[in-house]
Amino acid sequence: MTRDAPLVVRAEMRALPEVLDHVDARALEAGLDRGARFDVRLAVEEIVTNIIRHGYDEGAPGPVEVACASSAGALRVAIEDRARPFDPDSAPPPDLDSDWILRRVGGLGRYLAKSVVDDLTHVARDGGGNRWTFSKRVPGGTRELEGT
């Protein structure tokens, strides 16, 4: 298994392309196909965007750290912040039944991320902050993805 040096950025929207490029490069190195790389990018984009928009107080963005571990055909991603601890189970469930034109914007990030990766976990970090982890495997990819 190969682990990269974590990427640390300020929780600002202008940092999102750098985060996505970093994760995409790691996914490519892991041998993920185009579809799997798209899924990884989508999950990372949703999680990091939520951290940027909702995690830190406005005008006081803190750090977002993204670390990847890979082996043939598999990638594990960990995203950490020092924002207010968040309980994803306290968020209302996504509205999947309303007409999309009438539905309020937002509320689908975790649902989308969870639907495109093999597993998605969240823990509130001791001392504050949050840690999201997920893995993405392609058929025939290794199962050796312990901790990131």
What would you say this structure looks like, in words?
It is a single chain. The protein has 148 residues and is of the alpha+beta class. It has one domain (2-137): Histidine kinase-like ATPase, C-terminal domain (Heat Shock Protein 90, 2-Layer Sandwich), CATH 3.30.565. The protein is built from three helices and six strands. It has helices spanning 16-29, 34-55, 109-116, and strands spanning 2-3, 7-10, 63-71, 74-81, 119-124, 130-137. Helix 1 (16-29) runs antiparallel to helix 2 and helix 2 (34-55) packs antiparallel against helix 3 (109-116). The chain is globular and about 40 Å long.
Summed up, what is this model?
The protein is an alpha+beta fold and 148 residues long. It has one domain (2-137): Heat Shock Protein 90, CATH 3.30.565.10. The protein has helices at residues 16-29, 34-55, 109-116, and strands spanning 2-3, 7-10, 63-71, 74-81, 119-124, 130-137.
